[in-house]
Predict the structure.
Amino acid sequence: MTDHDRSTALAAFLLRIALGAMFIAHSLILKLFVFTLPGTAKFFGSIGLPEWSAYMVFALEAIGGVLLILGVQVRLVAAMLVPILAGATWAHWGNGWMFGYPNGGWEYPLYLTLLAGVQVLLGEGAYALQKTRPLVLGSVS
């Protein structure tokens, strides 16, 4: 393994841990304990989404966060979480760009959507419970 390969594996690992921790924080801490699941469901309903989808998003974020941290099915999990993050971007679109604006803007969810996409490309990286084959998209110079 070259130094570049080791650096890439470490970068993918760090990204995986950061994304996993973010998903756990947003599901368990924010949706479950701060907003509560019924409150989150009401918010989903207020923006035109089915209230039941809040429970599905909560479960996918919590389980996905744990799987990312453990390094299990990383590409699949990250790919499945991209639409949730894209939905969060849509939900915050009308609040302006900065996430620090009232009700949060779209910059942070869009950034996380991009990071999850990068995780799909990089794979699990180092220290994963499950190793997968490299994703080869073609030659890049």
The chain has one domain: 3-122. Helices lie at 3-34, 37-46, 52-70, 74-92, 107-122.
